[in-house]
Amino acid sequence: MLVIIAVVIVVIVLSAAERLRRAAVARRHRREAETRLGAAMRETEKRLAREKAKTDQAAALTSVVPAIQQRDTRHVA
Q: pTM of the predicted model, to two decimals?
């Protein structure tokens, strides 16, 4: 009878240890995924900032170009 109780206790302890190990592995994987996601988001934000800067530059250029075309050109003879 004592052996059966000991086996049941060992099984319960091993099961609890396995759950703790799985939880630790899951935490580590989540932490690594958060790190990768953060790096990807930072890179995306940089890319979007560069694209916005290009768009702003293009808009500034097109707002200047029509003004240049509207001026009278000098005719040198």
A: 0.56
